[in-house]
User: Fold this.
Amino acid sequence: MKVKNFGTSNLNGAVAIGIDQSFGGFAITAIDKDQNYYTEVRKIEGTGVERLSQARSFLIGFLDRYEVEAVAMEGYAFGSQMAHMAGELGGMIRIALFDKYRSDNPKAAFPIIVPPTSLKKYVTNKGTGVKKNQMLLAIYKKWDVEFTSDDAADSYGLARIALNKHDFEYEKQVYDKLTVK
Assistant:
């Protein structure tokens, strides 16, 4: 299992979590109220249930390090060629979060599901036509955080959404649309 790390794992107090799930680059970011962050990206190997089990172990191991306040995860891209596997992975993550937090933390047990276009809008103020390298650049310009992995960058953007601190009106508008019950 290949691992890339970004940021510092020494965070203060409760954190918001962003999850950009895929088997090729499963990325998780934790960010605290002071905007210190830590991101890990792993390539999940194997096939079938073995991959899902490895992904779950990575997720739970990461979450166990922190006091998690809220979670945002990437929604499904409807044109995906691997929709079945993406659905299984997304479902496994939602069940793992529910099992871990249902009794004491509904904001973590029921993650904010963020469609890819909403994430792009939150980061760049444009919902469509944004390429991966533009997301990396926008995150660097906006928050002075540099990534070499688009998976890491997406998980960071998702963690910023879960953090629920907005610097711009368009960020608040995206957040409000995502959290309407």
